[in-house]
Amino acid sequence: MAIKIENKIVDYNVVKPEHNDPGNDKDNKTQSTQQQSASSTTESLDTGTQDQSKIVQMHEKVMRPDRLVGNTYKIKTPVSEHAFYITINDILLNPGTPFEKRRPFEIFINSKNMDHYQWITGLTLIISAVFRKGGDVTFLVSELQSVFDPKGGYFKRGGKLMPSLVAEIGDAIESHLKMIGMIVDTGLDRHQQALVDQKRKEFEAQNQLKGIDLEVGNFPVGATLCLKCNTKATVLLDGCMTCLKCGESKCS
After folding, report:
1. Are 76 and 166 in the same domain?
2. pTM of the prediction?
3. What is the DSSP letter of 18?
4. SS3 breakdown of the chain: % helix, strand, coil, rounded to 5?
5. How confident is the model at residue 50, as a pLDDT?
6. Same domain, yes or no, for 153 and 224?
7. Residues 6+ apart with CB under 8 A from 165
8. Which terminus of the chain, N or C, has fewer Cβ atoms within 10 Å?
9. Are residues 175 and 92 in the same domain?
10. For residue 188, how many other CB atoms are within 10 A of its CB?
11. How confident is the model at residue 219 (pLDDT cuts 50, 70, 90)?
12. Is the same domain home to 78 and 162?
């Protein structure tokens, strides 16, 4: 039945449904479930945020522990009578957690050769400071490997060209960063490596028939420098210059 309002409306109240209304109980339960779900989600996000906030990242305020784990790399160059020993010590961050990682903390270079003592000491101090600064320190590898000696470089064992002693220090740091997982080794895949191994066996078989001895454990004597991987491993195979290390070929 329609009701006609003859006077002005000066106030109003909202009438809530009665508690004994079945429909209202259903709405209340739904609202309560939604509130509990939202609360649970908020708590989960807060817990995740707290876990993330507890993760220790490498920075210069991280205190040096009494004991560090390290590796030492030996460098023997034809330009120096004495060998160089490169020691890189790592710090273990977030041990025993899913965020555990090993990061370089300091570097030392020792040798009986005192000719390079001054600049090597300065270099180790700078590199150690960069390590402790944290972040992506892999740029050090390319920077050091790009240093050329004006007197000329040399070939290290295995036939790889080293343009300078500094570059070989960078090569040692690269090996270490690959070992602890900071640099992903993007070498040949399984199929490419199998092809390169096959090519090398073919080359060795051809030279054995000719009575030519090949250098054991390294690349063949007389191989030329590969411009792609800077390794003295390029040989003439099937009428085409082919690198026996990276597989680079002018015919492919």
Report:
1. yes
2. 0.61
3. P
4. 35, 20, 45
5. 46
6. no
7. 75, 77, 79, 80, 84, 116, 149
8. N
9. yes
10. 15
11. low
12. yes
Higher pLDDT, 80 or 177: 177
Helix-then-strand count for the chain, H and E: 5, 8
Of the candidates 138, 87, 128, 142, the residue with the CA atom closest to the CA atom of residue 111: 87
Residue 29 is assigned to a structural domain of this protein: no
Q: What number of residues does the chain have? A: 252
Do 83 and 140 belong together in one domain? yes
| CA within 13 Å, CB half, 202 | 14
106 and 166 in a single domain? The answer is: yes
- Report, as an integer, the average pLDDT of 83-104: 92
Inter-residue contact 244 to 219 (CB < 8 Å):
yes
Contacts of 162 (CB under 8 A, 6+ apart): 77, 153, 154, 155, 156, 168, 171
What is the reported pLDDT for 45? 47
Range of the domain at 158: 69-179
CA distances from 91 to 34, 196, 197, 208 (A): 46, 38, 38, 50
pLDDT, mean over the chain: 78
Q: Domain count of the chain? A: 2
Strand order across the 84-93 sheet? 69-75, 84-93, 101-111
